[in-house]
């Protein structure tokens, strides 16, 4: 079985061109499934035996995983990985049909932190190139981890590199605000910049399309639409929902409303106050203390 899992990892990396993150996650799922089946069946598993996996076996596995605390979105991704592994190991058409877990349709925004991350991971996992996977992950992390609008994220240029603890963002009506950056967000953007095959410098667009042009927001919206379908999330789960979730999660954890207005670039109650006048250090403290993934 170890040889089969290793061969699947090579297939994912070389043939499917999945990211290293995806390969690690899917291989971990294959190992979990193999160990579960040994205990579930009371005998060792093998590639040939995998062809005999039934829908009842998969339901038992999902119940086992749900007992460990994973949510619906994560369970849906787990089932997708299991299906891929079984198809590779036992052959196409051998995987039993099983409806994946889902949440109620029309789930209102915001989505939960776990669902936000699962959504971004699924979008990255389904990219056709590693650098595109890194790009999609970085864009969605800026929406959820920094509260940017999608237009603001795609409007960033190479001038922001190298990144610091904060980012200057120009939003609606050309207003500028200071946005603190989580280490995870900085890492996502820097990883993408290192993998991007197109030169990024000065006033050139940071996020590029497959042919090197400025990335079209419609591509991200379509990728999110596909991911929400695979994960069973509601139709209101859009790129903007990640920004909405950013704001709601901060408020729910005690963020100051005035500071949050500045973080989001909303019109201030004091119309004369400009966003750049806000103390960036204070915003960083509020952000780190309130964000669920800080």
Describe the protein's architecture and organization.
The structure is a single chain. The chain has 294 residues and is mainly alpha-helical. The chain is built from 13 helices and 2 strands. The chain has helices at residues 2-15, 20-41, 47-50, 55-67, 72-90, 113-125, 130-146, 150-154, 183-195, 217-231, 239-252, 257-264, 280-290; strands at residues 166-170, 176-180. A hairpin with a 5-residue loop joins strand 1 (166-170) and strand 2 (176-180). Helix 5 runs parallel beside helix 6 (113-125) and helix 7 packs antiparallel against helix 9 (183-195). The relative contact order is 0.12. Residues 103-108 and 268-282 have low confidence and may be disordered.
Topology summary:
Layout: H1 2-15, H2 20-41, H3 47-50, H4 55-67, H5 72-90, H6 113-125, H7 130-146, H8 150-154, E1 166-170, E2 176-180, H9 183-195, H10 217-231, H11 239-252, H12 257-264, H13 280-290
Antiparallel strand pairs: 1-2
Helix pairs in contact: 1-2, 2-4, 2-5, 4-5, 5-6, 6-7, 6-10, 7-9, 7-11
Structure, briefly:
The protein has 13 helices and two strands. The chain is mainly alpha-helical. It folds into two domains: 2-90, no CATH class; 113-290, Orthogonal Bundle (hpI Integrase, Chain A), CATH 1.10.443.
Features:
294 residues; mainly alpha; hpI Integrase, Chain A; 2 domains; 2 strands
Strand order, sheet with most strands: 1-2
Pairing-aware structural class of the strands and helices? mainly alpha
Largest sheet: 2 strands, antiparallel
Uncertain runs are: 103-108, 268-282
Estimate the strand proportion. Answer: under 5%
Name the overall outline. Answer: globular
- Count every beta strand, where a strand is a DSSP E run of 2 or more residues: 2
Q: What number of structural domains do the residues give?
A: 2
CATH class of the largest domain: Mainly Alpha
Helix amount: 55-70%
Based on the structure given, which CATH architecture of the largest domain is correct? Orthogonal Bundle
- The Cα radius of gyration reads 21 Å
């Amino acid at each position: 079985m170890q040889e089969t899992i290793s061969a699947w990892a090579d297939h994912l990396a070389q043939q499917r061109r999945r990211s290293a993150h995806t390969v690690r996650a899917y291989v971990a799922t294959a190992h979990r499934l193999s160990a579960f089946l040994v205990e579930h069946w009371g005998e060792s598993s093998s590639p040939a035996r995998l062809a005999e996996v039934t829908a009842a076996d998969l339901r038992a596995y999902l119940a086992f995983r749900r007992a460990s605390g994973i949510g619906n979105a994560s369970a849906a991704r787990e089932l997708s990985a299991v299906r891929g592994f079984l198809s590779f190991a036992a052959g196409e058409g051998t995987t039993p049909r099983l409806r994946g877990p889902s949440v109620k349709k029309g789930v209102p925004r915001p989505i939960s932190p776990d669902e936000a991350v699962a959504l971004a991971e699924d979008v990255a996992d389904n990219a056709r190139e590693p650098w595109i996977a890194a790009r999609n992950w970085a864009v969605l992390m800026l929406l959820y981890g920094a509260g940017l609008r999608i237009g603001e994220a795609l409007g960033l240029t190479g001038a922001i590199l190298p990144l610091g603890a904060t980012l200057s963002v120009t939003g609606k009506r050309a207003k500028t605000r200071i946005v603190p950056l989580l280490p995870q967000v900085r890492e996502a953007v820097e990883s993408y910049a290192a993998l991007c095959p197109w030169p990024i410098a000065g006033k050139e667009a940071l996020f590029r399309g497959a042919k090197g042009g400025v990335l079209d927001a419609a591509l991200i919206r379509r990728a999110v639409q596909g991911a929400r379908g695979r994960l069973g999330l509601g139709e209101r789960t859009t790129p903007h929902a990640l920004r909405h979730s950013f704001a709601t999660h901060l408020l729910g954890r005690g963020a100051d409303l005035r500071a949050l207005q500045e973080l989001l670039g909303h019109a201030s109650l004091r119309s004369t106050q400009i966003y750049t006048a806000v103390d960036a250090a204070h915003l960083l403290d509020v952000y780190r203390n309130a964000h669920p993934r800080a």
